[in-house]
Amino acid sequence: MNIEKFKHQHIDILSSIARLRQLSRAGVTDNAAAIAAQIVEVSGIIKLHLAVEDRSLYPALEACADARLVNMSRAYRTEMKDIAQAYLGFAAKWNTARQVALEPEGFRADANRVLRHLFERIQREDHAFYPAIEAAAVAAVAA
Question: Domains in the chain: how many in total?
């Protein structure tokens, strides 16, 4: 299974999170328009990423013969539901400059919580889940 597109999307998402951090540190109110625009931009990537995971990655892994991958996939899918719901709620609330500027501390608190969970999840996928998928693919070719 080729997961390069997923890896590239992770890079894009992590870059957007870093950009949001920079903008927030420089001043939430002063950068409200850029923050809202960045949220809208990264939300498109995240929604696409989630859809492809749900339609192709998880079903393929859960249909494979490797019980370890099946269990990992199910656990990652289940965990992602809560993370995705939290992110989508965050994005819906903070996708306008007006809302960000009206509640800069609320934005900062939500961003710290939601984006931290998203960042941590991506790190786990990049360091545990994706390597397991790639190792299984290599083993299947060698067999």
Answer: 1
What local confidence, expressed as pLDDT, does residue 2 receive?
83
pLDDT of residue 107: 98
Distance, in Å, from the CA atom of 136 to the CA atom of 119, rounded to the nearest integer, reads: 25
The whole-angstrom separation of Cα 39 and Cα 16 is 8
pLDDT of residue 1: 75
Domain that holds residue 99: 4-142
For the chain, residues with pLDDT lower than 50 are: none
What is each CA distance from 89 to 3, 83, 86, in whole angstroms?
A: 27, 10, 5
Q: Residue 116 CB: number of other CB atoms within 10 A?
A: 11
In DSSP notation, 12-43 reads HHHHHHHHHHHHHHH-TTTTHHHHHHHHHHHH
Cβ pair 93, 62 in contact under 8 A:
no
Tell me how far apart the alpha carbons of residues 134 and 13 are, in angstroms, rounded to a whole number: 21
Instruction: Give me the pLDDT at residue 49, please.
Output: 96
Structure tokens at 113: 């919580």
* Residue-level pLDDT at 129: 96
pTM attached to this predicted model: 0.93
